[in-house]
Design goal:
The protein is an alpha+beta fold. The protein contains three helices and nine strands. A hairpin with a 2-residue loop joins strand 2 and strand 3.
Length: 156
Amino acid sequence: MPLASEGHTYYRHTQVGYLIAAAMAIAAIVVIVSILRQFAWPGMIVLGILLAVGVCFCCLTIQITDGLLVWSFGPGILRWKVRIEDIASVEPVRNCWCYGWGIRYTPHGWLYNVSGLWAVEIRLRNGKVFRLGTDQPEILAKALMDQVVRHEQGPR
């Protein structure tokens, strides 16, 4: 499912959170074994929650089009977007291990991450800052800056 339909796609990458997926799978197996030993509705509810969280946070897709930066977790249920013209600066950064994975607030603003410590810090013109976790920090930062510069120069 496309994240954005506005114009040409300049960058699109999906990073899979293998450790998150493996942890959710192991937890689901434990719950399934427990349910099979003695069927219980609480176990079914826990299994449903584990599967939903696993699907929602198994991967992070980032896409850059003519006018938008869009990112989403899993199948796209959790999705955010920022207009390229609102971006002031981007910089590859390394997160502290304690920031973890998922969606969380850090001393550097919001972090959206599924795996690893690398991210791109994005500073908006209104002063807000957030980070997108990626295994391609240099490539993503360059693609974003190319689009920011292109928008600042206006139509050709």
